[in-house]
Design brief:
The protein has about 260 residues and is mainly beta. It has a single domain, classed as Beta Barrel (Porin). Helices cover about 5% and strands about 55% of the residues. Strands 1-2-3-5-6-7-8-9-10-11-12-13 form a 12-stranded antiparallel β-barrel. β2 and β3 form a beta hairpin. The protein is globular and about 55 Å long.
């Protein structure tokens, strides 16, 4: 209960913080995916370490990495994988790679004079992971992505999606995140997210964290999360790096965590 109170206080305080501009567009550290794609001809690596604790197990993601390639101004290709160490309470430790995910993000709507942007993301899940960690079936996860730049200092992002993976009905995905910048390099966010499992059981979680811009194309991040209706908490650290040729369009500026998504 005390952890939940701390998170609520953090969210309330975050909403009061002023923000400045940053540049890199990332999809971490929160669970809300940005509605924007990375610049054309650029290549981006977003990698991190995660530590997850539940009633039944302890898991370490070492690391999880998302690769993004900007193939046009409004379209990018994506590849995701992670190395997992899972220690269930009653069984032996499992170690290996997760199932690979290949996909794309399509920026559907964004105008310079409009404060709303919309995108669509879809990943194909390939049953290619280690024997003890694979879902052993093909799957898909897709989301429609929304972002609103409420003021020059505040942005709001949210996702609605669906994941089908070796189940009868699949799971509905929901996220809602608010982001602010404190300086031109340091930003914070707070978020609620979860799933409607098999369209029957609601899983509700929350997290909060920060990003720190080392250079316009390099960003560090950290986040902490917990479950509202289940015993779960996690902590993650990460780094993101955008690589672009000299003649490539410059990185976006003036984007908050979700309107730009400095990320999470």
């Amino acid at each position: 209960m005390l952890k939940r109170i701390y998170l609520i206080v953090f969210i309330v305080l975050s909403v009061q913080l002023a923000c400045a501009q940053e540049s890199i567009v990332t999809d971490r550290p929160d669970q809300t995916e940005s509605s924007l794609t990375i610049p054309h001809k650029s290549f981006q690596i977003e990698s991190g370490f995660g530590f997850y604790f539940t009633n039944n197990s302890t898991s370490i993601s070492t690391p999880n990495t998302l690769f993004r390639l900007g193939v046009s101004r409004f379209f990018e290709l994506r590849f995701f994988n992670e190395v997992l160490i899972n220690k269930p309470i009653l069984t032996e430790k499992e170690k290996g790679i997760s199932d690979l995910q290949f996909g794309f993000k399509w920026q559907l709507f964004k105008k310079d004079d409009n404060k709303t942007s919309i995108g669509f993301l879809s990943h194909l899940i390939v049953p290619s992971g280690s024997k003890s960690l694979s879902n052993n079936s093909w799957g898909n996860t897709s989301r429609i992505l929304f972002a609103h730049q409420l003021t020059d200092q505040t942005s709001l992002g949210y996702n609605l999606g669906y994941t089908y993976l070796n189940s009868l009905k699949g799971n509905l995905i929901y996220t809602l995140s608010c982001a602010h910048s404190i300086t031109d390099k340091f930003a914070v966010f707070a978020e609620i997210y979860g799933n409607l499992i098999e369209f029957e059981k609601i899983m509700a979680n929350g997290d909060a964290g920060f990003t720190f811009l080392i250079k316009p194309n390099i960003q560090l991040d950290a986040s902490y999360g917990l479950g509202f209706n289940e015993k779960m908490n996690f902590f993650s650290l990460g780094v993101s790096w955008n690589i672009a040729p000299k003649n490539s369009p410059s990185l976006l500026t003036g984007n908050l965590l979700h309107a730009r998504k400095s990320q999470p």
